[in-house]
Input
Amino acid sequence: MRENELHAKLAERLGEECAWTAVEVIIGEWGGCRLDIPTGVDSRRRRRDGEIRRMFAMGLAVPDLVQRYGLSARHVRRIVTDVN
Output
């Protein structure tokens, strides 16, 4: 990704000034390096599973969690009983 493309993407979310600051930091830290950017699937899954565990601990029933997250009851039960 080129510098102007990076700035444009960041500016959409952060605004112009923050985007330029972010670009400068990124270039300063990793300029010239090839980076492997994760897709975020694992972090989103961990966040979702944490939310499911918290809601279950607060008393939300498995069928409600199934409806809310679009998962099977078996999968929700596996998440709430997983101690990792």
The chain has a mean pLDDT of 94. The chain is about 75% helix and 0% strand. The first helix runs from residue 3 to 14.
